[in-house]
Write a structure and sequence with these properties.
Helix content: 10-25%
CATH architecture: 2-Layer Sandwich
GO molecular function: abscisic acid binding; protein phosphatase inhibitor activity; signaling receptor activity
CATH topology: Alpha-D-Glucose-1,6-Bisphosphate, Chain A, domain 4
Largest sheet: 7 strands, antiparallel
Order of helices and strands: EHHEEEEEEH
Organism: Ceratodon purpureus
CATH class: Alpha Beta
Strand content: 35-45%
Protein name: Bet v I/Major latex protein domain-containing protein
InterPro entries: Bet_v_I/MLP (IPR000916), Plant_def-hormone_signal (IPR050279), START-like_dom_sf (IPR023393)
Family: Belongs to the BetVI family.
Low-confidence stretches: none
């Protein structure tokens, strides 16, 4: 299964970065309404087996109101790892798409390394390119959330 990866060093301590990641569904529609009109927990408590419904904003392919459902496969507080699988409404170029975000201690005090990995299978009859657009979107999301965290030091602070 092909993969694409992005690694970033964040100027946020590990535990705070992890807490922000687990709460990003609440923050993203506020910070990026052009991309996420809403993100709602449809089923579960946010842990494995939960289903989130993402209603996309006008800047996304397919336009405002397109619905994507993602299942949480892993939410590991000890290993600081989230894994989601798109189960409905994803990019039609791929028959399967999973993304994993892992956080670990960074190279200097108060930093975190965020690694995003996507695994995908091109749809039948497609020679789908690697999902570089998803990688760019993930980079933008990470930058937006962590800029917000820098400007709002009490958000998700321990």
């Amino acid at each position: 299964m092909p993969t694409v990866e992005d690694r970033r060093v964040l100027d946020v301590p590990l535990e705070r970065a992890w807490k922000i990641a687990k709460n990003s569904h609440e923050l993203l529609p506020q910070l990026m309404p052009e991309i996420f009109e809403s993100i709602d927990l449809e089923e579960g408590d946010g842990g494995p087996g939960s289903v989130f419904v993402l209603t996309m904003g006008p800047a996304m392919p397919g336009g405002r109101g397109r619905v994507v459902r993602e299942r949480v496969d892993v939410r590991d507080d000890d290993r600081h790892k989230l894994k989601h699988t798109t189960i409905e409404g994803g990019d039609p170029r791929y028959s399967s798409f999973t993304s994993t975000i892992k956080y670990e201690s960074g190279p200097y005090r108060g930093s975190t390394i965020r690694t995003w990995t996507a695994k995908y299978t091109p749809a039948a009859g497609q020679s789908a390119p690697p999902p570089e657009d998803m990688k760019r979107l993930t980079e933008k999301i990470t930058e937006t959330i962590h800029n917000y965290a820098a400007e709002n030091p009490d958000y998700c602070a321990y």
